[in-house]
Amino acid sequence: MSNKIVIIGSGFSALSASCYLAKAGYQVTILEKNKQSGGRARQLKRDGFTFDIGPTFYWMPDVFEKFFSDFGKKVSDYYVLEKLNPAYEVYFGVNDSISIADNLEDIKDTFEKIEPGSAKKLQKFMDGAGSNYDIAIKDLVYKPGKSIFEIITIQTAFKLNQFIDNIKSQVARYIKNDKLRKILEFPVLFLGAKPEKTPAFYNFMNYADLQLGTWHPHGGMYAVVEAMIDLATELGVKIITESPVLKINIEKDQVISVTTPQGDTACDILLSGADYHHTERLLPKSSRQYSDSYWNKKTFAPSALLFYIGFDKEIKNVSHHTLFFDTDFSNHARTIYDTKEWPEKPLFYSSFPGKTDRSVVPEGKESGIILIPLAPDLEDSQQIRDKYFNIIIDRMEKTTDQKIRPHILFHESYCVNDFKSDYNSYKAMPMDWPTLFFRRIYCVQDYKAIN
Ligand SMILES: Cc1cc2nc3c(=O)[nH]c(=O)nc-3n(C[C@H](O)[C@H](O)[C@H](O)COP(=O)(O)OP(=O)(O)OC[C@H]3O[C@@H](n4cnc5c(N)ncnc54)[C@H](O)[C@@H]3O)c2cc1C
After folding, report:
1. How far apart are CA 343 and CA 62, in angstroms?
2. pLDDT tens digits, residue range 203-249?
3. How many CB atoms lie within 10 A of CB 413?
């Protein structure tokens, strides 16, 4: 049996693949470019504060549980998980917010108070979303992604109309209130298209959101990375950091090794958890599958401007996850997907993990993570970042009715240029989140298939 596998990258996809392959008896080595493993889910520590650099929303706990159970383990063997209540809060204006509870009955009550009659409709909407979740998450995502026919099943055939209909019009048929509509539309924003361009079938994201709830792993999302590293190591996977793959070497149409600054590493099989575009660029030109114009025409998930802020006191009137939808939703979406420019009045998402987990902040202080979704590949400069930092702080002060600026101890930012240099990201798209575990592992399968 071809035994030696090299995996490029140490993000969630590479780590999960490494575990399955090691369990199947392969000798697995991960080569990671950065000093810290975890890819887009790395961690930043500064002055006693701990920040998740990328993901902060833990959804679909069943998927994580299934992953660990495949190795005879439980999530609780590795980290403590807490269900958040409220799951999140959404601001629509000054002192005007809606909190989403940790269970559907309370969420229905919230809807009913705002729009009489909507509780029943939400239940009906969620029944459909639940059925789609069962099809999508429990079945389709675990297929290898080799053929379009994998997603054509008896169940999906019955749902054909939901691939023609879109989320926006579907939500509009159930709910009239604009704020409630936005709450139901927002989960698909990160998938790489506007709600009016996203098939209604994707309402399974609403099931993940409102039915399964929002969770927090103690220590932050990086606790999941650490858990996966522990499991991989227990299974015998070797992880080598600061080892960027510079070249994939091929002989007679077979991958034989990869080149890093430390030298060549031979392999029988190569997998890449790095971005597809970048991985292809590591191959000789004649062996690439896609041209530059192919990549150029592709639509990608949004990029982001992020801020990691240390405050000298606890911030009031915000929840662990707080969304600021106090400006026009469709205008911002248009700048991401149509005009591809910096938004004039951005919507943004904020996370204050210290509201739940005091282990990530020093005593009496608060950490804040801010994310503004953006079109990929926008111009990125310190001046632009500073401008948006000021816009966001002004808006937070006004909307949550408090002085925030004098309490900032420090802030760091992360944007397009960092995504490119840290992850070799194409056009700096940060990656859509429901693909967390089931993003297809881009195997250089034309050269060698695992068998
Ligand atoms: C800002 C942001 C917020 C997000 N929020 C959420 C959220 O709240 N919830 C959620 O579920 N998901 C969220 N996501 C998505 C989630 O983080 C990603 O889907 C996931 O981390 C991607 O994992 P991956 O393994 O596919 O890729 P990556 O994590 O990007 O892993 C790829 C790895 O390959 C390495 N690499 C690249 N080139 C080379 C090379 N030549 N040699 C060696 N190594 C290389 C990179 O350094 C990286 O470690 C967010 C993402 C971002 C960026």
Report:
1. 36
2. 999 999 999 999 999 999 999 999 999 999 999 999 999 999 999 99
3. 18
Backbone angles phi, psi at 295, to 5 degrees: -65, -40
Q: How far does the centroid of ligand 1 lie from the alpha carbon of residue 42, in Å?
A: 8
Lowest mean pLDDT, pick from 42-51, 136-145, 315-324, 353-362 = 136-145
Nearest ligand 1 atom to the CA of 34 is: 47
**Could you identify the residue written with the tokens 């077979």?**
254
Q: How many angstroms separate the CA atoms of 99 and 89, rounded?
A: 4
Q: Where are the alpha helices (DSSP H) in 186-337?
A: 204-206, 222-234, 276-281, 292-297, 329-337
In this structure, the residue with its CA closest to atom 6 of ligand 1 is: 55
For 50-80, the DSSP string reads EEESS---B--HHHHHHHHHTTT--GGGT--
DSSP-assigned beta bridge partners for residue 138: none
Task: Output the CA 41–ligand 1 centroid distance in Å.
Answer: 6
- Cα–Cα distance between 98 and 431 in angstroms, integer? 28
To the question of pTM greater than 0.90 for the whole model, the response is: yes
Question: 430 C-alpha vs ligand 1 centroid, how far in Å?
Answer: 7
**CB-defined site of ligand 1, < 6 Å:** 8-14, 31-34, 39-41, 54-57, 244-245, 273-274, 278, 304, 306, 371, 423-424, 430-431, 433, 435-436, 439
For residues 310 and 411, is the Cβ–Cβ distance under 8 A? yes
Q: Which atom of ligand 1 is nearest to the CA of 304?
A: 1
| The two structure tokens encoding residue 3 | 């035994």
